[in-house]
Design goal:
about 500 residues, mainly alpha, Amino acid/polyamine transporter I, 23 helices
């Protein structure tokens, strides 16, 4: 532990952590849901939930990392009381990191492929149907997706192979710097497009009628769930960077800086996309169709569209790669901590594992397209995304919170002491009751509501079956958190 690497600078830690948080969802989801749920009215709700939901969990992750000086492979074992079973829950982080990379490397490859198409002019002059066909042709070609996913994997593992300071930190600083510059240039360009003001109005002006029309409860839950998922909390991807952090600054202020940067990227994505859609009379939507069909069509209709399209997909490639590098570092560090491996060995083994494990998601759109695990029209990627987004992220977040507040875990006093080492903003002591009783309830509601919304279109019987499965996973988490080490704690009290 004494020889563990540390970040060379505070800025490096902030940019690397923000790079992990900044992902595809900031671009293909946030602007759309912001627009339909009342613009600035939604943003206010979103920011509130970032503070009361995202911030405490993010602080927990960073603090567990810094307190243990280990990745999730060994962090709980280092901090938990003897005789407890918290360390068994590390598999949430391990499985979550692998499952995320099993499809996210493919998506990162999509971004790089489209950057290549825009740079080489292969998208120029195509009509709407031809642009849509480019995306469907890509999905039907496993060799194309395999090639670009492999490029993303090679680049990302290559960066991690150089270590934290000389690889992850140094390269991510550059990528995030370029990402921010590209975003600002694209946003300025969108501002000066004809009729852009209508798009900005749709995006930012508070529209309480839209909130009422879509349902206040629906809007609130949309803000709450997006605030929760946007930070990539729950699978140890943030925890690992806490383990490389020194104790010069308190954790809370650093976490707020990362939240602000992530929010800035999400807002800027809206400034890029929404005005452009309004300028060309296109309905703003979300998901892959926005990135790979709607926007390429817009770029084809712009003056200098090839340049702007290339800039956009380079920006998206940086956003994807920064997340991939961050999660790869988490995986590499877990194997190093658990097995005592060198970085070189961990990189080599996991390079092979991720390359092989990425194949099912790629094949799920073509050779394995008949396999529809979550109902008609779903793919292998949908299954992997469901396991991560609807299960491991919320359950992992629940584990981090319970571990930090419960006496049979790390304990709130130990957590608070570590979080508040250094200068800067204090994590308040009075928040204990909220974190122990209210926050777990909020996360549980998000988890169960997510399941319900996902499966209810398939009927009540299917929904009931999956809700039972979700309940069983919750029972496992709460069972370990409530009862592990209880006998030991009781016997210790008797001895005293």
């Amino acid at each position: 532990m004494a020889g563990r690497e540390k970040f060379a600078s505070r800025l490096g830690f902030i940019l690397v952590s923000a790079g992990c948080a900044v992902g595809i969802g900031n671009v293909w989801k946030f602007p759309y849901i912001c627009g339909i749920y009342g613009g600035a009215a939604f943003i206010v709700m979103y920011l509130v939930f970032l503070l009361i939901l995202g911030l405490p969990i993010l602080v927990c992750e960073f603090t567990v990392g810094r307190g243990s000086r280990l990745g999730m492979g060994k962090a709980f074992e280092q901090l938990e009381p003897k005789g407890t079973k918290w360390h068994h829950l590390k598999w949430i982080s391990i499985l979550g990191s692998f499952l995320l990379m099993m499809f996210y490397t493919m998506v990162g490859g999509w971004m790089m492929y489209y950057a290549y198409l825009e740079i080489t002019g292969k998208m120029a002059g195509l009509d709407n149907t031809a642009v849509a066909n480019v995306f469907s042709d890509m999905l039907s070609a496993p060799e194309t997706m395999g090639l670009w996913a492999s490029i993303a994997i090679v680049i990302s593992f290559g960066i991690c192979a150089f270590g934290v300071k000389n690889g992850v930190e140094k390269v991510t600083k550059v990528m995030m710097g370029f990402l921010i510059v590209l975003m600002m240039a694209l946003a300025v360009h969108s501002f000066i497009l004809p009729n852009a003001s209508e798009g900005i109005k749709f995006y930012l002006v508070p529209d309480f009628k839209s909130v009422v029309q879509n349902g206040l409860g629906t809007a609130v839950f949309a803000a709450m769930s997006h605030a929760f998922f946007t930070l990539s909390i729950g699978i140890g991807a943030m925890e690992i960077f806490g383990s490389y952090l020194d104790r010069k600054k308190k954790i809370t202020g650093e976490a707020i800086n990362i939240i602000l940067l992530d929010t800035f990227v999400a807002l800027m994505a809206g400034f890029i996309i929404i005005p452009a859609c309004f300028s060309f009379g296109v309905e703003p939507n979300s998901g892959p169709s926005l990135l790979f069909i709607t926007l390429p069509n817009l770029f084809n209709n712009m003056a200098g569209g090839r340049i702007w399209g290339a800039m956009f997909f380079i920006f998206m490639s940086f956003a994807a790669l920064s997340t991939i590098v961050a999660v790869f570092e988490n995986i590499i560090a877990m194997f190093m901590d658990m097995n005592g491996w060198s970085r070189k060995k961990s990189v080599a083994v996991n390079f092979v594992l991720i390359t092989v494990l990425s194949a099912p998601a790629i094949l799920g759109f073509n050779l394995l397209s008949k396999f529809q695990p979550l109902g008609s029209g779903t793919s292998v990627m949908d299954l992997e995304d469901f396991l991560v987004s609807y299960n491991l992220l919320p359950l992992g977040s629940l584990v981090f919170v319970l571990f930090c507040v419960r006496k049979n875990g790390w304990g709130f006093e130990n957590f608070l002491k570590e979080a508040n080492k250094g200068s800067g903003m204090e994590f308040p002591k009075w928040i204990r009751v909220y974190m122990q009783y209210i926050l777990p309830v909020i996360v549980t509601v998000i988890y169960l509501k997510g399941y319900y919304d996902y499966f209810i279109p398939q009927g009540k019987a299917v929904t009931a079956g999956w809700m039972c499965f979700a309940a069983l996973l919750l029972l496992l988490i709460f069972g370990i958190s409530l009862f592990t080490g209880r006998k030991k704690i009781h016997s210790d009290k008797k001895e005293v």
